[in-house]
Structures are given as structure tokens and as C-alpha cells.
User: What shape does this take?
Amino acid sequence: MLDAAQFLANHHFKAAIFDFDGTIALSGKIWNDIDTIFCERRGIQWTPELATNVAALGFSKGAAYMVDRFNLDEKPEDIVAEWTSLATQIYTKQVTLRAGVESYLTQLRNAGIPIALATSNSPEVLESLEPRVALNNLFDKVLYAQHVGKSKHHPDIYVHTAAALNTDPACCIVFEDIVPAINSAKQAGCTTIGVFADDPAQDVEKVQEASDCFLYDWQDLLV
Assistant: This one.
């Protein structure tokens, strides 16, 4: 497999789509901690496979999945509220972009390439990053899976994001850190870059196998 810098230099893409958690932000370990706390409160065994599945589903669908999977006597909306409360407390003070990300986004913009964020996270949680991280200033478009109506187990968010950038999915590069999202982006027709995350639940080998190329460090893409 070519290194990411060489791959991207040889691939003439017209737009770039980025995942947030784990991919461009140092939040993978934070979500692992949140999920562990959530499961320990309910006596559930938290596994990397479960973490990856729920991460792709997003808040609402992920909460409904947990209720069904573990027969929880809870309402999905209450689980969403718990996840949102835990996450916003941490995001407000701790979550930052990974080294090199902001410079790479600027590099793409200077090259005239439109960029978008496509995330399974919630607007409420990501808005808690303001003003430290101003996502609407960093990206041309910000799309949320919950607004699209389908999780990242489906290609819809990538199709919608490409359309928002006035670009065919076949001309888009997608940066993701989990296998279900990578597979969905490929179903949409996009080229995929798997990204090494700070998430202990990430199966690096499977992400490498699923993606067209793999990126360890964003600073490797800076010119």
C-alpha cells in the first residue's frame, strides 16, 4: 500500500470529506472511557466490536441498538441524554484537533478543494467545542448523520455531503477511522483513506484492509 502522501499526490480528487471523532480529533480514547462508564453502570461487557458498531450508528440509533441488544429497561432518548451530558462536559475543556489537521485543511482550501465534515456525533456535543474549535469556520459544510436520517452503516451521508460540495462522490476522498464507515463511503463511490486513531478500540489491521490507503499522522500530508 502506498503511503498516504504519495497516494493523495497521485489521486486527483475534487473534494474531501472528513469524519470527526478519532479521525481529526483526539476524542477516540474519550469515547472509549464514556462507553466504558456507560456499560459498567449497567453491567454490560464493552468490547471493541460493540464500540465500532455503536460509533457508526450515532447517538439516537446507537441508543436504540443498546436497548434492543441488551434488553435495557430504558428509553433511548434517556441514553442519548446521558451520552450527551458526559460528552459535552469533556469536549468543552479537553477535545482538540490532532496535530497537522488544521494545517492540512488550510492546505486543501488554498488549493481550491472544498472540504466538509460528515459526523455521527451530535450538533450539541460538537458545538460545545466553540470557541476553541470553530468547525463551521474550518469546513465549507458540516453534515450530521442524524440530520441525514441514516447512520454511517449506510452510504447516504457521503452521498449527501458530496452533493453539498457540488461534487460527484467518485471525485471525493473520505477520511475515516472505522470499518463500517469506510465500507459505506466506498459504497457511495468515494475513495477512502483509513486513519490511525487514538481509540484503543480501533482494529488498525481491519481499517487498513478496508481502506484504499492508510494514514498514520496528519503531519505527513503537509507540504
